[in-house]
Description:
Blueprint: E1 2-3, E2 27-29, E3 42-47, H1 54-61, H2 65-71, E4 80-81, E5 85-91, E6 98-100, E7 108-113, H3 121-130, E8 140-144, E9 151-156, H4 158-161, H5 174-177, E10 178-183, H6 194-211, E11 218-220, H7 238-244
Parallel strand pairs: 7-10, 7-11, 8-10
Antiparallel strand pairs: 1-4, 2-6, 3-5, 8-9
Helix pairs in contact: 1-2
Amino acid sequence: MMLNSSKRAIIPILLLCSLLSSCAAPTRKAPVDAGPLAVHRQNVYHTVAPGETLWRISQMYAVAPDTIQRVNRITDANSVNIGTRLYIPGAVPRRHVITLYPNRKWKYIIIHHSGTETGSSQMFNEAHIRRGWGGIGYHFVIDNGTAGKDDGQIETSPRWIQQLDGAHCKASSMNEKGIGICLVGNFSNGRPSRAQMDSLVYLVNTLREYYGIPKSRILGHGDVPGANTECPGTRFPWHKFMARLK
């Protein structure tokens, strides 16, 4: 499977990513922990996830896409295989990159857990393809430090980048109007990590502010009318989470 994107310019507080030609230009959200670039840099490896391009990866680590392409001997910058392990020289600590697209369809935010102890966007993508869903069903994944990802890392799926309906909640037609966020873990047995909750609060606040989604429309999967599930888990700290939202 190949990923495609075009390079674009950065403006001071906005971050740009690829968008379907049928949509309006996106609004770009600056990396959450972007600060002066005179920070500690080190060489790291990054495994390409579904929806990621050299441009998006370059923004995570503040390393030019041309540099990543050159050191990894990539011949076509617009085609990078999912699962490719890239060497990123002189990277800053990884930053969140959230792209916001003008779209009136998003009325809800639905929170899920994976129900598994380990996971990543790539793992879910492979599992959901086997189910015939055409790829990962969530719009975002928040990792728990397993499967080669950092604890609290936010992964953006192709469904969000392309502004496609989800495949995460059929009840009440939420796939068509709800943004699906999945935290890796089983929260009927345990709880999300602090890093996961910090990232969830940041992501949800970013999305609800841009799309005008009230707190009353931020739901756990099991709270959606017609859904028969305990997702995102009986031990998910729902009240604490809601109290932290703006």
